[in-house]
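During the reporting period, our protein records have gained a structure token line. One record among many is quoted in full directly below:
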Amino acid sequence: MTIPAGLYALCEKRRRRRYTAIGAAEERLREARQAAEAAHAAPPDPNGGSHGAGHGDGLERAAIRVVEAEEQLRQALAWDNIFTRMDRIYPAGCLEDTVSRMLYDKGFTQATVGEALGMHRITVRRYQDRYVINLALLAVQEGLARMEEKADAECL
């Protein structure tokens, strides 16, 4: 089975950020909430605001940032759930898990992984593909990605 290159790339990107995505999303949300609180506490423009530069506009932009950050956190948590499912599909020690950890957690190349595991690079690629394709199918099932994902696509 093949999947679109953009979807494959999205899954690889998410897998590389598996252990940092939630923390980064929580930090963005914390910053957005602080900015919203600061915007709310700021005194209104003495000129009454003009052409979209008033107190309400800044507060509205801050509120939008909070909503966007909450959505990013929701997605990070949903991806984490998918990775937990992948851990059950490919438990520690199986070749798909070992290859994915070496490639995405340690940043090894396919050739380096092949040397370390005593297999050809193409065999490493097969285990990598098996892992990423199953990850992509779960992401599509959960509505986090689409099979038509463009090559430059970001998460939904």
